[in-house]
Design brief:
Elements (H helix, E strand, L loop, with lengths): L1 E3 L2 E12 L5 E16 L3 E12 L6 E11 L7
Antiparallel strand pairs: 1-2, 2-3, 3-4, 4-5
Amino acid sequence: QPLFKNIMLNYSWKNSYETRPVHSLTESVFKAAYRQNIWREWLFFEVVPQLSFHRERDFEAVPGILLRVEGIFGYISK
């Protein structure tokens, strides 16, 4: 979801399953990523808070956060 020219939000939900010995849900993860272009066209900063629910923890919420700096090198076509 673009907010402004250089800022976007990305939402995701991932489920993980085991198929053997029985089909069962092992984990669910909810993420909301905030991504911003911080310098030129090739350097980005991202903050991704998340909630994960693991079967080993009886599906209790486990909060987490990811901080990422990403650079794209090479030719960028427009």
